[in-house]
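Dear colleague,

Thank you for sharing your sequence with our group. We've completed the structure prediction you requested, and as agreed, I am returning the results in plain text so they can be pasted directly into your records. Please verify that the sequence below matches your submission; if there's any discrepancy, let me know and we will rerun it promptly.
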Amino acid sequence: MPPLPMTHPHKTIVFDLDGTLVDSLPDIISSFQYGFTSLGLPAPTDAEVRPLIGHPLEDMYAHFAPAHAASLCTVYREHYARNFVNRSRPYPGVVELLRTLRERGYSLAIATTKRTDMARRFVEALGLMPAVDYVQGTDGFPHKPAPDVIHRALAALGTADGLWMVGDTTHDIHAGKAAGLRTYGVTWGNHDAGTLATAAPDEIQPNLGRLLEHLPPLPRRGPPA
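Please find the predicted structure tokens below.
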């Protein structure tokens, strides 16, 4: 991780990872299904898995096979760790957007349901680590829609305040609202516009482009008098 920057209130943007910055659903779904086939269980279809993405992994497996959830999680984590960038790529324009926001003076955090160690490996493998200031996963505390992962990301950057939470699911939107941030729902991930609308985000857009309209360059701080 790069050194943590000196931050100021209300200049941090928090992003979800999967389905928001990165098109990772094919690798997640295939690894999820692999757990079933490896244990000789019938695997759910893509359409059955997709609505559950964003929930804790244990809950996703318990939905289909509660008696095998622990074993399925173990298989998934081993398989996903070897295959997590087979098809996963940043969405178009994401790298440029993150760079532009950094140049405009904003601090950028990722707050994800992935475990922190896996999230950081993933961000590093996709070349996004230099474009963000901090990556926070969910380790032993409540998952979104609880705001805990957002609070921890903000605290790690030295502030209790942020500007926007950007995500692709209603869980992201509810978590952002609970953390006191404005919320931006992007529809190229897991939840469509109609589903996102049920959480009443401040913005629903097909991509991240409009975010830049809300975030002009911050005034540069001059030298001490």
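Summary note from our side: The mean pLDDT is 92.

Kind regards,
the structure core
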